[in-house]
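Whiteboard transcription, Tuesday session. T.W. wrote the C-alpha cells on the left side:
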C-alpha cells in the first residue's frame, strides 16, 4: 500500500491548523506513519508463518491463529491511521469549496479562505471530535480483541480440529508487545492533543464572541 496520499493529506491540512494541530500532524507523521512503514510492518510480516503449535493435526494451527489473532495488529494499526487522518479531509474540502465559490463569483467573499472561522470553524471542530472518537474506539477495540495490551509467549488452544489442548507459541512476543504499548501511548497522546485543540478553539472563539457582544452594548 502506498501511503503517499495520507502524507499529502496531512501536509495539506497542516497549513490550516493551529499550533497544537501542527504538533498532532507531526506526531502522526513521525511517530506513527514513519514507524509503521519503517519498522512495524517487518515485525508482523511473517506472524502467521512463525506461529507454531505442538501438533501436526491439519487445520489446528490455522484455527488457533485465527482465534487468537482475529485481526492482525498491523492491519488494525493501518486502519486506525487511515480513520484518524480522514476527518482532516473535511477541512481541506471546506477550504477548496470556499476557494471555488470565490472563483465562480469572481469576487472576494472571505478575508482568507483558509482562516478558521464561521462554517470552517464548525468543520474543524467536527473533524477534531471525529478524530478523538476514532482514537478511543480503536483503543477499546484493541483491548477487547486481544484481552488487554499484552502479547503472551504461549497460548493454549482446544478448538476443533485440534485433538486436545495444544500449546501454541507466538513469535517475537516481547517486541510485538513493545510496539503495541507504543501504539497505545501515541494514540493517547493524539487524544490529549485533539482535546487540547478543541478546548483551545472553543475558548478562543467564546472569548471573541463575548468581546463582540460587549463592544456592541457599549456602542
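and on the right, the sequence the group agreed on:
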Amino acid at each position: 500500500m502506498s501511503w503517499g496520499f495520507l502524507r499529502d493529506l496531512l501536509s495539506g491540512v497542516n497549513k490550516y491548523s493551529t499550533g497544537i494541530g501542527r504538533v498532532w500532524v507531526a506526531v502522526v507523521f513521525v511517530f506513527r506513519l514513519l514507524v509503521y512503514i519503517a519498522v512495524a510492518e517487518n515485525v508482523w510480516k511473517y506472524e502467521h508463518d512463525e506461529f507454531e503449535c505442538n501438533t501436526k493435526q491439519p487445520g489446528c494451527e490455522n484455527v488457533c491463529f485465527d482465534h487468537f489473532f482475529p485481526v492482525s495488529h498491523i492491519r488494525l494499526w493501518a486502519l486506525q491511521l487511515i480513520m484518524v487522518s480522514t476527518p482532516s479531509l473535511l477541512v481541506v474540502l471546506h477550504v477548496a469549496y470556499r476557494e471555488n465559490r470565490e472563483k465562480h463569483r469572481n469576487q472576494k467573499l472571505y478575508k482568507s479562505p483558509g482562516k478558521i472561522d464561521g462554517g470552517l470553524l464548525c468543520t474543524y471542530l467536527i473533524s477534531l471530535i471525529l478524530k478523538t472518537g476514532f482514537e478511543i474506539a480503536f483503543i477499546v477495540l484493541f483491548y477487547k480483541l486481544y484481552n488487554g495490551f499484552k502479547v503472551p509467549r504461549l497460548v493454549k488452544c482446544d478448538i476443533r480440529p485440534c485433538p486436545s489442548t495444544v500449546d501454541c507459541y507466538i513469535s517475537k512476543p516481547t517486541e510485538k508487545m513493545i510496539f503495541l504499548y507504543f501504539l497505545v501511548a501515541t494514540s493517547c497522546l493524539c487524544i490529549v492533543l485533539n482535546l487540547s485543540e478543541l478546548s483551545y478553539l472553543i475558548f478562543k472563539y467564546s472569548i471573541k464572541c463575548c468581546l463582540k457582544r460587549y463592544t456592541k452594548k457599549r456602542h
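Someone added at the bottom: The mean pLDDT is 81.
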